[in-house]
From TrEMBL:
Organism whose genome encodes this protein: Amycolatopsis taiwanensis
Keyword NAD among record annotations: no
Protein name: MerR family transcriptional regulator
Domain of life of the native organism: Bacteria
Keywords: DNA-binding
Amino acid sequence: MSYSIAEAARRSGLSIDTLRYYERIKLVEPPERDAAGRRAYSDDDLAWLRFLTKLRTIGMPIRRMREYAELRRHGEAAAPRRMAILVEQRRSVRERIAELQSCLDVLDYKIDHYDRICAGMFSSGAVREEISA
């Protein structure tokens, strides 16, 4: 299947400008061109774009993404280094998840604290009269 740049942008969730930027910085190979000279993205191109989007979502820097993309061009010979990049990124993601979990624990504690305060306020007559007034 072949997709125009607009359709590739829609399907990947990236803007047309981002697709052109990724091509310019060599994160993506230039897509094939149709008979009119327009970009024609393949299903494989879209799968690669979805993967790049995941890498950005997990906080991988563009320079590391570019390194990974360059290694991808070298095929299986570069597999050990590509895997090392992903293992390092996984470590970073797990650290971030632990940090976020710690923040979530604090939020849960504070919400429970305020829930108890509010429950106490609503059980007192003064607040109830004020609310009903």
